[in-house]
Design brief:
This protein is an all-alpha fold. The chain is about 55% helix and about 0% strand. It has 9 helices and no strands.
């Protein structure tokens, strides 16, 4: 069993959630690599021309399907909303309502061109991180959702600092600081980081 990851910005898993690990892995490094490979396959699917053209990324079903594909080789609960409270995110009983509001806002923003494509996608990303609907993988899911959404809107995927922001380091700190600025109402650092 992989030990829980208590690094800053990571969501700790409950013992029950940890028990749902599919592969037999011994270290956090092995888990990170396994998840990375799973996510790369999901990214290839999500950003394929066919999927971007045919699927609406601003739906509950799409968000769950994307998460499932990102983690289906890693966690039994992939694509399922969390059932336990975390150190971040809304209360469990608020997840569906908050997601419904976000998806409604997203559709409205798209239809009314409330924001430019980059800002719209980054705002959806930020709200997803605030809600934190899944047991784990929320930041990675929110970033891929933003990438899919911006491509769906005719733009190019974000670079997200061009570094590994899952690992502890300066890129991750910059990303988390930008999220905190967005929490306080200033989306500009997160917009800048998304394209850096």
């Amino acid at each position: 069993m992989v030990p829980p990851n208590d690094d800053a910005g990571n969501t700790p898993l409950s013992p029950e959630e940890q028990d749902d690990l599919i592969p037999n892995l011994a270290t956090q490094g092995e888990l990170n690599e396994w998840e990375r490979e799973n996510i790369l396959e999901a990214r290839k699917w999500a950003l394929s021309e066919r999927e971007v053209r045919l699927r609406d990324p601003v739906t509950d079903g799409y968000l769950r399907e994307l998460h499932r594909r990102m983690f289906d080789q890693t966690w039994k609960w992939a694509g399922t909303y969390r059932k336990s409270e975390k150190n971040i995110g809304v209360l469990v009983h608020e997840i569906r309502d908050r997601l419904g509001a976000l998806l409604g806002n997203g559709k409205y923003w798209i239809e009314n061109k409330t924001y430019g494509p980059d800002e719209l996608a980054v705002r959806v990303h930020h709200e997803l991180t605030l809600i934190h609907p899944f047991p784990n993988g929320n930041g990675r899911h929110a970033r891929l959702t933003a990438d899919v959404l911006i491509v769906h809107l005719g733009g190019s995927a974000f670079s997200w600092g061009q570094k590994d922001i899952v690992a502890i380091g300066s890129a991750r700190k910059t990303y988390l600081d930008a999220l905190h600025s967005a929490d306080a109402g200033d989306i500009r650092p997160l917009l800048k980081f998304a394209r850096s």
